[in-house]
Amino acid sequence: MMRAGHAITGLCAGLAAAPAVGVTNPTGVILGGTVASGAALLPDLDHPGATATRRLGWMTRGLSKGLRACSARLYEATKGPRDENCDGTHRHMTHSLLFAALLGALVGFGSQLAASWHPTAGFAAVLLPVLFCLLLAQAQFGHWVAAPVVAAAVPMALSDAGPVAAMNDLAGPIGILIGLGCFVHCLGDAITKAGCPFLFPLPIAGETWYEIRLPAFLRFRAGGSVEKGLTTVVFTPLAAWLLLITIAPRVPAYLTTAMGL
User: Fold this and answer.
1) Are 36 and 11 in contact (CB under 8 A)?
2) TM spans, by residue (predicted)?
């Protein structure tokens, strides 16, 4: 899949999953969905020309270079007798369920540990990955990303507990949503012709990096008309519906407050 497909499927997955991982406030759900959307672009940091790699200049280029080097070494050390002869960079280490789980666990447990040590540390541990993922999502959705940021920031700032406590409530769930975004990226690539070795390191047919694919008649070319059709006709309306059912229950309360009733 290309950037648009990854971003919109990540948004759908995040909006659907956020309530299940303990994010029940509508503003938090929208923020969580947007974070998952940005995280769905993270695996392509293993490509030097990807949006994620170019997003923050030298910082993300350096991160990309490090990830590609790690991926190449991991591939060389673990490839099976029937794995292809390649450098093992793009669509390898970062395109696996293992990577998604480890990254999600690092962010989730790290933010929880920081929050247990000091609320300000927890605030920073949640804020940094959230901002990074929002910047990635902004590359696809433009200034529309400001809407969930404002929608989440204002209630957090005005809450009785304050913004620090509100952000600490996201410690843990934010890691799950980031890991989910990465995994959704892998699934998106798996339905294209290239496939995706997301079950690494499970050996299949003599390959440690076996590309999981759909049956041949169901595969499509990344960036082709089928992908564009799915993005436009299926996932964009689905994202709009998920946003609607998230916001709609709160509309009467917002109107009542605004009218001073």
Assistant:
1) yes
2) 97-115, 121-137, 144-164, 170-188, 229-251
Residue 207: strand pairing partners: 204
The residues facing 192 across adjacent strands are 220
Q: What per-residue confidence (pLDDT) applies to 217?
A: 85
- Block residue for tokens 């060389």: 76
Enter the pTM of the model: 0.91
What is the DSSP code (8-state) at residue 218?
A: G
Instruction: Record the tokens describing residue 122, joined without a space.
Output: 């927890």
Q: Which two tokens stand for residue 130?
A: 């959230």
Tell me, rounded to whole angstroms, the distance of Cα 166 from its chain centroid.
21
Q: Are 74 and 92 in contact (CB under 8 A)?
A: yes
Cα–Cα distance for residue pair 93/86, rounded to 1 Å: 13
| pLDDT (mean) for 215-228 | 88
Lookup: tokens for 156: 């957090």
Contacts 24+ apart (CB under 8 A), 208-212: 208/78, 208/79, 208/80, 208/83, 209/75, 209/78, 209/79, 209/80, 209/83, 209/84, 209/88, 209/92
Task: Name beta bridge partners: 22.
Answer: none
Contact 168, 125 (CB under 8 A): no
